[in-house]
Specification:
alpha/beta, six-stranded mixed β-sheet, four-stranded parallel β-sheet, 45% helix, binds pyridoxal-5'-phosphate
């Protein structure tokens, strides 16, 4: 999982399908990121903030009771313990520092569930930047508490009333804002999607997950690597960051778990959306369809282009978990390990539970799961589902 070069292509996927007016902004951003990422001082500053403010390194936890029940050794990479409760902060602190280096004082972002919006508002507060978060009207209703959280952090949440009034429309609106404001504004995109350089840049900012996890596993496993590495996928940033530590360096099998109602890799068709060519859920006429999942963070009708490529190469396997399995996994991890996972992360746990003891995850094997976030935000929703 290396540098896709100036075209931003991962095999036949990726690229930069943007209007002429956005081309200079994408080119400027790529050049700035390339320079920053090659600059040891920038990397040291980011690592320092991730350590002293973000709570890194996050630990790897051995799941003794769940392992005994399943007959496989389950390890969790605890991104739920990072500040703001998920992996999203790794990316926004990187992009926030980069924006400052580019002389930009304003951050804009899209959000669906609100997690990326909260992380961006947090980074903006820390770095003293203005922040506007675009959010579909439907999501604003569903995620009231996160809207208030962003406002407490000093961000302005702008409702998006176009289209289906959800995440994909919020991305469109953020891109529109960026066209008009690029002189002083950085668009802080929340996953490994969108036009080049975002899929590559966001993966690099999330790479810290995989690099830490590999070293921690080698220590725990006496120098060995896990047999299987699993992560959930919305746009694909937590999975890309985790896989970056293992895809080239080890023979571990990589498994990415999508929401069954938004499974771009297993049910999607190649197309262009939000500046990238990738696998998308669309009708035969090319209309983008609504993704559905119990977890708002996996409600995206596409997947990052590098995932489409890894899937085509066969280096990673793309599977799905349905809402029922996810609610079961949420409760199972709570009761066996005392950890409430985000519903997004519960997709990865659900796959482990469903596959322990099969050819994909044989008895006695070791599986590392990226626990991308904590479930506090989902408790009220799970209560309503369980009581219905
Ligand atoms: C905890 C958590 N995990 C996973 C995701 C999915 O995003 P990605 O696939 O980019 O990691 C989200 C998105 O909001 C999230 O909040």
């Amino acid at each position: 999982m290396g540098d896709p070069g100036p075209t931003g292509r991962f095999g036949q996927f990726g690229g930069r399908f943007v209007p002429e007016s956005l081309m200079p902004a994408c080119i400027e951003l790529e050049a700035a990121f390339r320079a920053a990422w090659a600059d040891q001082a920038f990397r040291a500053e980011l690592s320092g903030i991730l350590r002293s403010y973000g709570g890194r390194p996050t630990p790897v936890t051995e799941c003794g009771r769940l392992s005994a029940e399943l007959g496989v050794r389950v390890l969790l990479k605890r991104e739920d313990l990072a500040h703001t409760g998920s992996h999203k902060l790794n990316n926004v602190l990187g992009q926030g520092l980069l924006a400052q280096r580019m002389g930009k004082g304003r951050l804009i972002a899209e959000t669906g569930a609100g997690q990326h919006g909260v992380a961006t508002a947090t980074a903006a507060a820390l770095l003293g930047m203005d922040c506007v978060v675009y959010m579909g009207e439907v999501d604003i209703r569903r995620q009231e508490l996160n809207v208030f959280r962003m406002e407490l952090l000093g961000a302005e949440v702008r409702p998006v009333g176009s289209g289906s009034r959800t995440l994909k429309d919020a991305v469109n609106e953020a891109l529109r804002d960026w066209v008009a404001s690029v002189g002083d504004t950085h668009y802080c995109l929340g996953s490994v999607m969108g036009p080049h350089p975002y899929p590559w840049m966001v993966r690099e900012f999330q790479r810290v997950i995989g690099e830490e996890a590999r070293a921690q596993c080698r220590e725990l496993l006496g120098g060995a690597d896990p047999d299987v590495v699993v992560a959930c996928v919305g746009g694909g940033s937590n999975a890309a960051g985790m896989f970056a530590g293992f895809a080239d360096a080890t023979g571990a099998s990589l498994v990415a778990v999508e929401a069954a109602g938004g499974a771009a890799m297993t049910t999607g068709i190649t197309g262009v959306l939000h500046g990238m060519r990738s696998a998308l859920i669309q009708s035969e006429e090319g209309q983008i369809l609504e993704a559905h999942s119990v977890s708002a963070g996996l409600d995206y009708p596409g997947i990052g282009p590098e995932h489409a490529h890894l899937g085509e190469l066969g280096r990673a396997r793309y599977v799905s978990a349905d809402d029922h399995e996810v609610i079961d996994a949420f409760q199972r991890l709570a009761r066996t390990e005392g950890i409430l996972p985000a519903l997004e992360s519960a997709h990865a746990i659900a796959w482990v539970i469903a596959n322990a003891g099969t050819a994909g995850l044989p008895v006695g094997s070791t599986v590392l799961v990226n626990l991308s976030g904590r479930g506090d935000k989902d408790v009220a929703q799970v209560r309503d589902i369980l009581r219905a």
